[in-house]
Amino acid sequence: MPTVRTELKAADFMTREPVCVTPSTTIAQLARLFEDNGISGAPVVDQQGSVIGIVSKTDLIRECSRGTANIPPAYLFEVLREQQDEEEAVEIEPEPDAVVEDFMTEDPVTVSPDAEAAAVAREMVERRIHRVIVVDEENFPVGIITSLDLLGVVSRSR
Predict the structure, then answer these.
(1) What are the chain's domains?
(2) Rounded CA separation 15/150 (Å)
């Protein structure tokens, strides 16, 4: 079985300057951000830029599919359809009140840039998560590591 090279550090394979959102980012803004940037998750930062949570496409879909009094269950799909049909000017319901703060995961798993690749992989497996946020000593996001980033490390170490 191949092993992950232990000399590799998080800074060596993280995606730098991750796209971040705030707790007040709306469902529609989040869906557009994921689509426009080709990402499936983002750190949530407070007004000072410090990491306070993480949100993923899975969280977004789960929130939209359950529906509430303010949010129809298929809202996400309406938002995505609006993006695809912009030329046809499809009208949808006004944006609901739900924001990232309502469904983000608080206290996300973070690592330092000098964390060993094997330790990052173990943490992700043990916690059954698909991404960790790389933070500096002041808890500001400097990178993000996804499952695919780790697969790339393994494939390069063969």
Answers:
(1) 10-156 (3.10.580.10)
(2) 11
pTM of the model: 0.79
* SS3 of residue 68 by DSSP: coil
Q: Starting from the edge strand earliest in sequence, which strands make up the sheet with 131-135, in order? A: 15-16, 141-146, 131-135, 110-111
63, 98 Cβ separation under 8 angstroms: yes
Name the residue with tokens 């009094």: 69
- Structure confidence by residue, pLDDT tens digits, 8-49: 899 999 999 999 999 999 988 998 999 999 999 999 999 999
DSSP code of 48? T
For residue 137, the model assigns a pLDDT of 96
Q: Which residue has the tokens 């330790």?
A: 119
State the pLDDT at residue 33: 94
| Cα 124 to Cα 130: distance, rounded to the nearest angstrom | 7
